[in-house]
Amino acid sequence: MAEKKSFYYRLHKQAVRHWQLYLLLLVPLAWVIVFKYAPMYGLQIAFKDYMIRVGFWGSKWAGLKHFKAFIGSYYFPRLIGNTIGISLYSLLAGFLPPIILAIALNECRMIFFKKTVQMITYAPYFLSTVIIAGILTQMLSLNGVVNILIAALGGQRVSFLGEAQLFKSIYVWSGIWQNTGYSSIIYIAALAGISPELQEAAYIDGCNIWQRIWHVDIPGILPTAIILFIINTAGILNVGFEKVYLLQNPLNMSASDVISTYTYRMGLVDMNYSLATAVGLFQSVISFVFMISVNQIAKKISNISLW
Known about the structure:
The chain is an all-alpha fold.
């Protein structure tokens, strides 16, 4: 009891002494509570036949009805295949580019060139998804820049956004172009944390630049890379809705229809809120399981994990 009292006394003392910091903490804490925890109250409608006029408590319980309806639906195999396909493609294709860029920038000794490359590669990240989708739509249209070049070289114009098999590559590589520069920042920070003594020792031992990268830089950023990989697996079923929706059309629907767009159609278009909530909950649970599994595998293989 005395220890408990002592803890609360110290906490109160710290709060009084650093009240400005605790005041600043209230804003993000309130945001998390309002937008992350409060909506969890509505998860109950995934297990009910929800009707707006009777509210949460007036709606009848339906058990796992909506989960079974989703898993047994015609769209389920396509949604899961497209979502996991795009996520894995993004995860694997987008893993190395930020690391390569960070190492290249770290080894660059021309300050002006380094800062220019950083500015150019970081800039796309700050463009909104709507602008990125608009650029892609204009460039890849039949009369866009890409098809003009193809026609000028004697090739046949291609309806890029009308070909279902091209959608995943367009989505993934445009995302890599947009995010690689910004994602490299954390690796640059990790490289900055490597002891200069290791670099000097490698240099004295006669290692060339490639050997220093392989034996010093890569082992130094490996823990960071593994942690980021584990975190990214948590979003294995969370393909970004906005970009997919903006690039989606009836011609590429077979490859672009993912869980998030299906949830939008069920919830906001068809107003089937119970089914949409069930799909969202299913998505979150599977993503959580993926993250725990990958974390345990990484822990056994490399002894590096989130917890």
